[in-house]
Design goal:
The chain contains nine helices and seven strands. The protein has 228 residues and is of the alpha+beta class. The strands form two sheets. A five-stranded antiparallel β-sheet has the order 4-5-3-6-7, covered by helices on one side. The chain has a two-stranded antiparallel sheet with strand order 1-2. α2 crosses α4 and α7 packs across α9. The N and C termini lie far apart (77 Å).
C-alpha cells in the first residue's frame, strides 16, 4: 500500500509539472524523494521549434503580399512607438499594407523573384509597405503626411522596387509624382481632340516621346484589365 501511495505521489507531481520539487514519502517519514528536474535541452528545443515556425509563417506572409504588389518599399521605423505604428496603419488605404519583418526573413521571401532588387534595403530597422494598386502616389502620400506631422526626417523610405527597378530614397520624387490612370487618359484625350495641325506639331516636337510613352502605358493597363 505504501509503495502504491508513493507511486501516486510521484505521478501527481509529474502532472503538476514539478521539475525539481520534493515529494513526501509516507513510508519514510524523514526522507524525501527528489523529483527529476526537466532537462533544459528539451525546453530549448521546444522554444527553437516555435521560433522556427514563426519565422516560416512570416516568410510565407511576405510572399503572399509580394504576389499582388505593384510596389514594395522599405520604411525606417526606428524609434516609433506601437501607438504611432497603429496610427500609421489606419491612415493607409485598404490597398496598402504595412508589415514589420526582419530583413533576413524578407530576404528569404524575395529570393529568386523580381523583388530581389530590394536587397539594398535589407539593413537597419525596416517596416515594409506593400502597395496593391497602380495608384502609387496616393499609396505613398499617407506616410509622407505622417512623417511631416511627427517631424520624422530621419525615418524616411529606405528604398523601393517598382516594375523591377530599384528606387533609392532620393529618387522617390519620381514615384510620388507619377501620373495616375486618369491623368494618362486625360492627356491622351486632350491630344486626340486637338486640331490635326496641332497633333502633327506635337508629334514632331520633343513631346512625341512622351506621347508614345503614355500610349504604351495605356496599352499596358488595358491588357492587364483584360486579363483580370
Amino acid at each position: 500500500m505504501a509503495m502504491a501511495t508513493l507511486a501516486a505521489s510521484i505521478a501527481n507531481a509529474g502532472t503538476l509539472g514539478a521539475s525539481a520539487s520534493e515529494i513526501w514519502s509516507p513510508c519514510c517519514s524523514r526522507k524525501r524523494i527528489q523529483a527529476a528536474p526537466m532537462r533544459r535541452g528539451s525546453l530549448l528545443r521546444v522554444e527553437m521549434a516555435i521560433s522556427r515556425r514563426k519565422k516560416e509563417e512570416t516568410v510565407e506572409k511576405v510572399k503572399q503580399q509580394l504576389e499582388t504588389s505593384y510596389l514594395v518599399a522599405g520604411v525606417k521605423y526606428k524609434g516609433l512607438t506601437v501607438q504611432q505604428m497603429q496610427n500609421l496603419r489606419r491612415s493607409l488605404p485598404e490597398s496598402t499594407k504595412l508589415i514589420v519583418a526582419k530583413n533576413t526573413l524578407v530576404g528569404k521571401a524575395i529570393e529568386g523573384t523580381k523583388w530581389e532588387a530590394l536587397k539594398p534595403c535589407l539593413k537597419g530597422m525596416n517596416a515594409w509597405l506593400f502597395v496593391h494598386t497602380e495608384e502609387i502616389p496616393s499609396a505613398l502620400k499617407p506616410y509622407r503626411a505622417f512623417q511631416k506631422e511627427l517631424k520624422l526626417e530621419d525615418n524616411d523610405f529606405t528604398g523601393a522596387v517598382f516594375e523591377g527597378k530599384f528606387y533609392a530614397p532620393e529618387e522617390f520624387k519620381q514615384l510620388e509624382t507619377m501620373p495616375t490612370r486618369a491623368d494618362v487618359y486625360a492627356k491622351l484625350l486632350g491630344v486626340l481632340k486637338s486640331p490635326s495641325s496641332k497633333v502633327v506639331g506635337v508629334l514632331q516636337a520633343p513631346a512625341r516621346k512622351l506621347l508614345l510613352t503614355l500610349k504604351a502605358y495605356v496599352q499596358k493597363l488595358e491588357e492587364e484589365e483584360s486579363k483580370s
